[in-house]
Amino acid sequence: MSKAMVVTVVACLVALALPAGVMAAEVTIAADALEADCGSLNKTITAFERAIAVSSADQKARKTLIGHVDRLQSRLEPLCKLRPHGRGERQIKIDDARAIVILDDVLAALVDAETAIEEARSLSRSESREMVQEMRGAMERVRSLRALVRKSEAPVEAPVVVTPVVAPVVVSQPVVVPQAVDKATLKSLKTSVGKAAFADRKVALIEDAARTGYFTTDQVVELLGSLSFDDDKVKAAAALYPVTVDPVNWHKVYNAISFESSRDELRARVKSLKPLGQ
After folding, report:
1. What sign results for the dihedral spanned by CA atoms 222, 227, 231, 236?
2. Average pLDDT of the chain?
3. Does 93 share its domain with 192?
4. Considering 7, 28, 109, 204, which has the largest number of Cβ atoms within 10 A of its Cβ?
């Protein structure tokens, strides 16, 4: 996703579901930036389709991967169909909630395609690696925006200034506690982690989830149960710590790690991280 589009959209996404008294703005997308992003993502899909056609994938795997090509095209289509309302205008205005849904759909389709590639056993290692690189390049363009969107999930309320006879008083805003992912989302994530063929891919899936969601300590323990080795558990736990909604219960996580040396390593990592809300 180009910087021009990221800056323009994210600066306006604070308008999503804002209550009265909260600062808001409209989502505006530069048409030129959007055209460039859509062109780049469409090239990725075309390259993916060509790679499947010349690959060593068997008939079943080929059919599955082509299905992901179709899904990518359908998810990208609403984004690329956006146009300015007036002739000669170069800005596209869109409902903020719709913008988020479209971008999340594109990202989800890319993640699913990458998982399908890694599960296609008939592909050679080099073919799988090249396809995955294509998917990850496209994901980075979308993920840069998604990371900024996450920062806007807890809207900043406009300070309430009370003007008494003596002097103005600024009332501090209330602390907003993020909502942890629901059971269905957690189950879906655990399923994806369980299906991943390699340990580093399992950890990467959990790290990706930590960029876009929040978790309870009990959910963290569940996710660590999907990993076999302490080194991987330490990496995953360190990624999840800053987005754990109840850090006071973090002591439960150490019980999910087998060796004391690994627990000490996690403790050292956590010391350098800020818990949620600080």
Report:
1. negative
2. 77
3. no
4. 109
Burial (CB < 10 A; 0-12, 13-18, 19+), residue 163, is: exposed
Name 22's bridge partners. 157
Amino acid at position 44, single letter: T
Give the DSSP H or E segment for 187. Answer: helix 183-195
Q: Has residue 75 been placed in a domain?
A: yes
- Cα 142–50–101 angle (5° rounding)? 25
* Nearest to 40, CA basis, from 109, 139, 116, 117: 139
Tell me which residue range forms the domain holding 201. Answer: 183-271
Selection from 27-36, 119-128, 245-254 with the highest mean pLDDT:
245-254
Assess whether 257 and 133 both reside in one domain.
Answer: no
Q: Using CA atoms, how far apart are residues 146 and 212, in angstroms rounded to an integer?
A: 7
Residue pointed to by tokens 């602390």? 175
Q: What pTM does this model have?
A: 0.46
Instruction: Give the model confidence (pLDDT) of 98-115 as tens digits.
Output: 666 677 778 788 888 888
Q: What is the pLDDT of residues 25-69, one digit of tens each?
A: 455 666 676 777 788 888 888 888 888 888 888 888 888 889 988
95 and 27 belong to one structural domain: yes
Indicate whether 78 belongs to any domain: yes
3-state secondary structure of 178: coil
Task: Name the residue with tokens 């990208």.
Answer: 76
Asked if residue 146 and residue 75 are part of one domain, the reply reads: yes
User: Residue 170 class from Cβ within 10 Å (0-12 exposed, 13-18 middle, 19+ buried)?
Assistant: exposed
